[in-house]
Amino acid sequence: MQNLRIHWFQHVPFEGLGSIGPWLEQQGAQISRTAFWNGELPPSTESFDGLIIMGGPMSVHDETDHPWLRAEKEAIRQAIAHGKVVLGICLGAQLIAEVLGGEVTRNPEREIGWFPIERTPDAAAHPLGGVLPHHERVFHWHGETFSIPAGASLLSRSAACAHQAFAMGVRVLALQFHLETTEESAKAMTEHCAADLTPGSFVQTAAEITAPTPQFARINAAMARLLGSLPWRSSSR
After folding, report:
1. Is residue 236 part of a domain?
2. Considering the domain boundaries, does residue 154 fall inside one?
3. What are the φ and ψ backbone dihedral angles of 13, each rounded to 5 degrees?
4. Is 24 within a domain?
5. Non-local CB neighbours of 166 within 8 Å, separated by 6+ positions
6. 23/15 Cα distance (integer angstroms)
7. Total domain count for the chain?
């Protein structure tokens, strides 16, 4: 992956790439970033080979409070149209869903903490489906969900959220859950988003979320396998 140009979108300063950053560095990728929270705007599609869109506490509908969302959505639309690999996580997944014609709505349950996901029956037939965790506790932090855009494949679900992951072909992947979360990034989220941690059927406490567990290493390994399965090299320039 030497000389591969990966750009990523950051929505808040406390939510970064997590385990994705070290993986990209190990591959020798050139990494660049748009920090929307700092007033930056996205670069031209020609300047990168792959796009990673991270999470954030805002909604895709918050264009009045965050007018840069309009520019971000157009940048995602252009990246997909130009055949780039596009990976979205949490808010990033919801932005991809909306750009592709899906609908982002409130999920019946807030899902925050460690809860299991499972692959859907359709996942077995998809090139990326078999790489996703089958039955695994993963990290979540969301109150909204997305519908599956026309032509996309639903790959994962959970007890609290019927739509956890989808792919459009093999170059566009949307994950509602987090495989990149590290102990440090989980702690940062509990500190900056503490108001979200009100009691709920699928809401854990800050202590439960940040307790030492080998699960961090397991989800980070799953993230690495998934990143290694995406066709970065075949993205159009």
Report:
1. no
2. yes
3. -65, -20
4. yes
5. 93, 97, 146, 148, 149, 152, 153, 154, 155, 173, 174
6. 17
7. 1
In this structure, what CATH number is given to the domain that contains residue 70? 3.40.50.880
Q: What is the pLDDT along the chain (237 residues), one digit of tens a residue?
A: 668 999 999 999 999 999 999 999 999 999 999 999 999 999 999 999 999 999 999 999 999 999 999 999 999 999 999 999 999 999 999 999 999 999 999 999 999 999 999 999 989 899 999 999 989 999 999 999 999 999 999 999 999 999 999 999 999 999 999 999 999 999 999 999 999 999 999 999 999 999 999 999 999 999 999 999 999 976 555
Q: Looking at residue 1, what is its pLDDT?
A: 64
The DSSP bridge partners found for residue 145 are 105
Token pair, residue 5, equals: 């140009």
Cβ neighbour number for residue 150 with a 10 Å cutoff: 9
- Does this model's pTM top 0.85? yes
| Catalytic sites, residue numbers | 90, 178, 180
Residue by residue, DSSP assigns the chain as -TT-EEEEEESSTT---TTHHHHHHHTT-EEEEEEGGGT-----GGG-SEEEE---SS-TT-TTT-THHHHHHHHHHHHHHTT-EEEEETHHHHHHHHHTT--EEEEEEEEEEEEEEEE-GGGGGSTTGGGS-SEEEEEEEEEEEEPPPTT-EEEEEESS-S--EEEETTTEEEESSBSS--HHHHHHHHHHTGGG---BTTB--HHHHHS--THHHHHHHHHHHHHHHS-GGGS--
Copy the structure tokens of residue 113: 């903490």
